[in-house]
């Protein structure tokens, strides 16, 4: 589904991958770097290799901390050719896109064109009409407390029985590979499903919220949401390899993207070529790990939105993720608490691609990591996805990347 991450790591879908020699990892001083650093290149490279050895075909990452930058890659980008992954590859980053969209909305709040606690019916009365449109606020859309259900079961009907794996098939993934969706059509799919109570907590994660926000951006800016986000968020942050793709194929160097869907697709199938109109500004971006770290560093430093907007974005509520986990969610930002501090960011998966990006609240540590296999855990006889060696290996790498020396001291 379009949201994934730390909680998803225990319910991905596995593959028994070949283990070629991994790419080398690199560590380089950042501008103004201190000679001393808590980044241990050998330890990070070993932990990254461990994820590959556990069954992940390819994984690549960028870690920043103590004025230094480490980039590494391990494994292969193409199972048929053995082509290696590289740290600079482009990736479909899924719901990390939501942070970009939320930042764009907050810019419009700053300009006075949108009121955060105004009802969506004020702006889009024909899309969300009547009492519902008057109860649901822009804030509720941003933090998933609107009560509006997910549209994906309608757009991908063969997956509508989720989470009952025995009653599902991957047929819709292939049926929709080149299908051009209209965002209004997708929103109406979500609005037609049984709704929750607006404003109640815990909220329920729903991509429908962010497609509505995209249509709101279009209404108040007079341009498409993708164009506005590109000019005012992506280009403002100086991101050189981040874009909303306009065609199914990704431009520039990238990996194949293998979807296993909990063993329903065996062997895992490549979905790197895909029409992303099914998620648009909810989960459609392509980016690099370097660009993601740059973006979150600037956002959390108050360089993309104002400090007051950032304060609103970091006010969290409990939200139930698509995987059934309770997460802390703000306005397009997730909060994760570790033994070495509080991190902000997002995670995301689309068919075949999983990405996680976290930045510590003081900006002193960052991790962005991409993987080319999703939903790797196979189910047991009752249909419940089981633990896989990738889960533990990935948790080990993330702990080392986010906490460095602190993780060793804690152990």
TrEMBL record:
Residues 22-41 are annotated as: Disordered. This is D-alanyl-D-alanine carboxypeptidase. It comes from Thermasporomyces composti. GO terms for molecular function: carboxypeptidase activity. Residues 22-38 have a biased composition (Low complexity). PANTHER family: D-ALANYL-D-ALANINE CARBOXYPEPTIDASE (PTHR46825:SF7), D-ALANYL-D-ALANINE-CARBOXYPEPTIDASE/ENDOPEPTIDASE AMPH (PTHR46825). Residues 51-382 form the Beta-lactamase-related domain. It holds the Pfam family Beta-lactamase. The keyword Protease applies. Gene3D superfamilies: DD-peptidase/beta-lactamase superfamily (3.40.710.10). Keywords: Carboxypeptidase, Hydrolase, Protease. InterPro entries: AmpC-like, Beta-lactam-related, Beta-lactam/transpept-like.
């Amino acid at each position: 589904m379009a949201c994934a991450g730390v909680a998803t790591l225990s319910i991905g879908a596995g593959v028994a991958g070949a283990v070629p020699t991994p790419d080398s990892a690199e560590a380089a001083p950042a501008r103004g770097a201190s000679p001393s650093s808590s980044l241990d290149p050998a330890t990070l490279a070993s932990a990254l290799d461990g994820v590959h050895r556990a069954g992940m075909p390819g994984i690549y990452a960028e870690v920043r901390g103590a004025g230094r930058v480490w980039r590494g890659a391990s494994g292969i980008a193409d199972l048929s050719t053995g082509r290696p992954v590289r740290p600079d590859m482009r990736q479909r980053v899924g719901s990390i896109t939501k942070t970009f969209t939320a930042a764009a909305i907050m810019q419009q709040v700053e300009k006075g064109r949108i009121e955060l606690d105004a009802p969506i019916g004020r702006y889009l009365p024909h899309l969300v009409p009547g009492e519902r449109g008057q109860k649901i606020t822009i804030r509720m859309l941003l933090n998933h407390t609107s009560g509006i259900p997910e549209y994906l079961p309608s757009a991908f009907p063969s997956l509508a029985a989720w989470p009952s794996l025995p009653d599902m098939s991957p047929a819709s993934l292939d049926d929709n590979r080149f299908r051009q969706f209209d965002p209004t059509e997708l929103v109406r799919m979500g609005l037609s499903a049984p709704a929750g109570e607006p404003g109640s907590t815990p909220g329920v994660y729903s991509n429908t919220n962010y497609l509505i926000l995209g249509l709101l951006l279009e209404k108040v800016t007079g341009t498409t949401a993708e164009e506005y986000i590109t000019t005012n968020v992506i280009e403002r942050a100086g991101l050189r390899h981040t874009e909303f793709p306009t065609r199914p194929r990704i431009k520039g160097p990238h990996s194949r993207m293998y979807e296993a869907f909990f063993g329903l697709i065996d062997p895992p199938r490549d979905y790197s070529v895909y029409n992303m109109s099914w998620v648009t500004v909810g989960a459609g971006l392509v980016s690099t790990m370097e660009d993601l770290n740059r973006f979150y560093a600037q956002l959390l430093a108050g360089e993309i939105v104002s400090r007051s907007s950032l304060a609103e974005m970091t006010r969290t509520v409990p939200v139930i993720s698509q995987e059934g986990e309770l997460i802390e969610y703000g306005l397009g930002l997730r909060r994760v608490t570790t033994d070495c501090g509080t991190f902000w960011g997002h995670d995301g998966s689309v068919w075949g691609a999983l990405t996680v990006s976290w930045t510590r609240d003081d900006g002193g540590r960052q991790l962005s990591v991409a993987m080319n296999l999703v939903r790797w855990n196979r189910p047991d006889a009752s249909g419940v996805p089981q633990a896989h060696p990738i889960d533990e290996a990935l948790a080990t790498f993330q702990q080392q990347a986010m906490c460095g020396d602190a993780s060793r001291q804690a152990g």
